[in-house]
Amino acid sequence: MSFSEDLSKDHAESGETTEVKDSALLAGLYEEISSTFNKIYVCCETNNYILAYLSAVCLQRELDDAHREYGSEKYDILSFYEWDDLQKMNLAVKAAEDHLVRFIVGSGGVIKRYSTFEEFQRSAWAW
Fold this sequence. Notes:
Blueprint: H1 3-7, H2 9-13, H3 23-46, H4 49-70, H5 86-106, H6 117-125
Helix pairs in contact: 3-4, 3-5
C-alpha cells in the first residue's frame, strides 16, 4: 500500500464522500500551511525530531480542520512519526501535500505561488 493510500484509508473506509465546500478558501488555507509542510521537510532533512513532531502536530490539526470544514481527505500523518526514522513521516507529509494540492486544483481552486519575495510583494501591493 502506498503512503497516499494509507494516509486516506480511514476516509475511504468510513464511506464518506469527498465534496469540496469552498475551493477558494481551501486554497487560501493551503497557502497558509505550506510553510508548515516546508518546515517539516527541513526538520526531516536535518534530523530535528523534536521540531518535526511539533510541526506535524500543528499540521495534523490544520489537515483535520480542512477535512471538517472544506471536505478534503482525512490524513493521518502522525502515525508515520518515528523519532529515529523521520523519512517515513517525510514521505507521508509529501504524499498528503501532493494529494491536497491535486484536490484543491481539481475542485477549481487556484493556489497562488511566487518564485521570489519581490514577486509576492508586488502581488500583495496590487490589491
